[in-house]
Amino acid sequence: MSVVEGQRLWTPSGSFAARSNISAYMGWLRRERGLDHTDYDALWRWSVDDLEGFWSSLWAYFDVIADGSMQRLLQRPSMERARWFEGVRVNYAEHLLRYEARAQPGETAIHHLTESQPLAQLSWQQLGAQVRLVATQFRALGLQPGDRVVSYLPNVPETTVAMLATLAIGAVWSAAAPEFGTRTVIERFAQIEPTLMLACDGYRFGGKDYDRRDEVAQIVAGLPTLQHLVWLPTLQHGDGAPPWRGARHWRELLDGDAVPREAFRYERVDGDHPLWIMFSSGTTGLPKAIVHNHTGQLIEHLKLMSFHFNLRPGSVMFFYSTTGWTMYNLLVAALLTGAAIVQYDGSPMYPSVDRLWSLAEATRTTNFGASPTFVQIMEKAGLEPGRQFDLSALEAVLVAGAPCTPETFQWFYDCVRADLWVTSQSGGTEVGSAFVGASPTLPVYAGEIQARCLGMAIQAWSDDGQPLIDAVGELVCTQPFPSAPLRFWNDPDGQRYHDAYYAVYPDVWRHGDFIKINARGGCYIYGRSDSTLNRYGVRIGTAEIYRAVEQVEAVADSLVVCCELDGGGFFMPLFVRLKPGQVLDGATVEQINQRLKRDCSPRHVPDRIYAVDQVPYTLTGKKMEVPVRKILMGWPLAQAASRDAMMNPTAIDYFVEFAAAQADYRRPTRPV
């Protein structure tokens, strides 16, 4: 594949753009508000220049269900302390299930598949009925608004039912995936003092069963505030008694008479009431407990799912994720639009490498989501899904979780479909949404995120706070947005929250990513700024190096870091995982260096290159650049990285041994 960054790959047809949700919204603005925006860029500029006009229009356009009357849409003593939608009370789950009243009998809300259970469906009526039953049972157990409910469950419909039931009564949801280790889970959940926990007995991945009963017992022992434990059997232990003393079986929550829609009361809450608590990746230090609220996440997700994902009744959304990643929450958020979702629990490569594409065919998926790492696997396997499966329902692809290369985009056009809206986004756990994302009215350019999301005043800034165009800078948001975290849990004076986002630029959100925004508004993410390679004052994004290095035929994967040395020096090693049968000899080293010089610059050439068996990844598929750098700088492993938060825990061992044994690595010399 030959593709150049910024090369136009796709242009929406007139009919595709005209029938998009964002075009419908622009028409509504003309009719109802007298605002005639000629294109997406004009709409975006209005959305960040007139915050109250934009966000109040969404409140009306989406007909938000609320108690009370809005006294003030935005109070802004500062960006950091901004408060939204004062005087009204909403419930997020109520809006997620609103489509149930309009759905056809038997219309699918959730397609679900695991490695141990065949593909099945849950209708809107079944989903709503189960949520109301479980929510009623939670209330009967004494759960109150504000109580924390935690989940150690896989990506199955029961998890979604439990999540919606929790939110429906005003309790607070938090989740960890069952592949997380005991320490990682306790570090998260102990901070928020949960009242009820839902846990599985294990999970199946890659054809192998993983029994988690001992881990659950240890987690329960580490959470002294727990009053209730609910057991969801997912392995062979499903017919017997719960394996933990005092636990209730999941099916007990579904016992009892049906609760009609009109008889159920959603707990509508104000803007300071927590919705869910999400955690930072946990690769370093104690994970940050990030608190989001009902109102901000609701209005943001209505916007994101409708305008930037272009979902509607009849759409089917799939994104490969575990329950411990923010993409699971965003997958569930697709229900806000009346779209169906696809939940899959298992390996994306089992029993064969085309597993997810066969699932997309079977469910008539319209919006398919995965990470760039997944695409690399598909490409290396020589898979051409468009020729092997009926993907005629597919309209859009969302690639998220890490920066995308132009080649990632091109692969979809070459191997899936030529007429396809290939999108990327960036945002994450902190905002529960995206800062930059897609628009169905704009062309797709190779490697480029199409636009800044509506209502998000995103800029690239230099170190001295000057906006940049066509140059790499810090990703900042200069105006308040409703989905900003309410706070961090156990951060009473707000200092940790301030230090995380507002300590660098006064009253401006600094996200921690490097971004380039071009003159037409297209965006490029160049990785975390805290993993940036800073050599003698020149900043280099790791994504630039990976794109070049991984085009070398011998290289399967790579990781690069830069360590500051005493006396102002730098050491930038490159670690490469080679393809089978390849060796890191002088010729391969020279090929890598020449590729970096040609595609990037001489400054991109590493000080040394080392072969590794594995590149360490987090559970969400991100390369662990910062932990590796800290280990090489002398940090103890326990302070630099959490094995339980890793996809491949043994991969970090090489770097621990490297830091201890390579006594001369602080004396940089070029490889020959």
Give the SSE map.
Blueprint: E1 8-10, H1 14-18, H2 21-33, H3 40-49, H4 51-61, E2 67-75, E3 83-89, H5 92-96, E4 108-114, E5 120-123, H6 124-140, E6 148-152, H7 157-168, E7 172-175, H8 182-192, E8 196-200, E9 202-205, E10 208-211, H9 213-221, E11 228-232, E12 248-249, H10 250-253, E13 274-279, E14 289-293, H11 294-308, E15 316-319, H12 326-333, E16 340-345, H13 355-363, E17 367-370, H14 372-380, H15 385-388, E18 396-399, H16 406-415, E19 421-424, E20 426-428, E21 433-437, E22 444-445, E23 451-452, E24 458-461, E25 467-468, E26 472-477, E27 487-488, H17 495-501, E28 509-517, E29 523-528, E30 533-535, E31 538-540, H18 542-549, E32 555-560, E33 563-564, E34 570-571, E35 573-578, H19 586-599, E36 608-611, H20 625-632, H21 637-640, H22 653-661
Parallel strand pairs: 4-16, 6-7, 6-8, 8-11, 11-12, 15-16, 15-17, 17-18, 18-19, 35-36
Antiparallel strand pairs: 1-22, 2-3, 4-5, 9-10, 13-14, 14-27, 20-21, 21-23, 24-25, 24-26, 26-28, 28-29, 30-31, 32-35, 33-34
Family: Belongs to the ATP-dependent AMP-binding enzyme family.
Pfam families: ACAS_N, AMP-binding
Organism: Hydrocarboniphaga daqingensis
Structure description:
- The protein is α/β, with parallel strands linked by helices.
- It has two domains: 426 residues, Rossmann fold; 130 residues, 2-Layer Sandwich (GMP Synthetase, Chain A, domain 3).
- The chain contains 22 helices and 36 strands.
- The strands form eleven sheets. It has a seven-stranded mixed beta sheet with strand order 5-4-16-15-17-18-19, with helices on both faces.
- A hairpin with a 2-residue loop joins β9 and β10.
- The radius of gyration is 24 Å and the shape is globular.
- The two termini are 30 Å apart.
- The C terminus is likely disordered.
